[in-house]
Amino acid sequence: MIKNYFEVVRAGINTTFQDQGRKNLYHIGIPFSGAMDNRNYLIANKLVGNKLDLPVLEFAYQGPLLKYFGDKINVAITGDVNFTIKKNNDAINGNCYETFSLENGNELDITSTNRSVYGYLAFSGEFDLKSQWSSYSVNTKANIGSNDGKKLQVNQKINILKINQNLKDKKLNYINTKIENIRVIKGTNFHYFSNQGKKIFFEKEFIISKLSDRMGMRLEGSKIENIVNTNIKSEGLIKGVVQVPADGNPIIMFSDHGTIGGYPKIGVVISADYDKLVQLIPGSKIKFKEVELSSAETLFRLYDLETQNLISQI
After folding, report:
1. Contact by Cβ (8 Å): 287, 180
2. Structural domain of residue 271, as residue ranges?
3. Strand, coil or helix: 199
4. Which of 60, 184, 186, 269 is such that its CA lies 20 to 30 A from the CA of 105?
5. What is the Cα–Cα distance from 286 to 252, expressed in whole angstroms?
6. Contacts for 307 with CB less than 8 Å, ≥ 6 apart
7. Number of domains in the chain
8. What pTM was estimated for this model as a whole?
């Protein structure tokens, strides 16, 4: 019988289980999914002493209100998040990037992200979940992944199979920085666009629209002119690719993107900028900056090294 569990009092906005995603399934139409902000996902697991590939709870804008039942457990939240811990009728404001403990009857109320989109909640233990294709990541559009491919629901129980014994207090001094200049490499259909369209892409500001989610980010701004064809034979897509449909407004593909698409691709966001890009809220302004593939590879190695250095400090 499971004796350690969380009861979902409020589910929050799009709260799902995520890990590092599914691999090598694009050829059968299964997207990668996984945590939107990989750095914050990894840090959350490390803070509570978990293996780095275990699933955590990812939430957008507002997180869940959870009531805990069971033995003492450590918890950590990463991102730019406002939350409180309720113990014996006392509400304590929590701090991101440091562990805190929950005991039987305590509540965790994640009220909002702070001028960002995604936050991550990790517990010092293993969830009672079933994996699918070697991943627990949920894609709610396709109903695949753990939790029957669905986001959290009110009154749902989140069972903890095993609490790890590493209950030491840990803290990381880390601040999420913002990004405005998004670096990209040229896309495979770059030549489809007029010189003026290319100039607009690299020199004008775009505004992030409200029509953005885990599948993609829609942008608004000066129209990017296509001089060849606004539709192409459907081709494979990757995370971070920038498509331009007939209306001239770019769409950036995110973690739950479709695996094929028929809009011309003007660019691809480099991997080093992806974590920060996904945290930009609707209404934010961004500009694209071209870099060469060799530079993109170097920038990713540096970003990955910085992430590993942060993890090693915990």
Report:
1. yes
2. 181-312
3. helix
4. 60
5. 12
6. 38, 39, 42
7. 2
8. 0.95
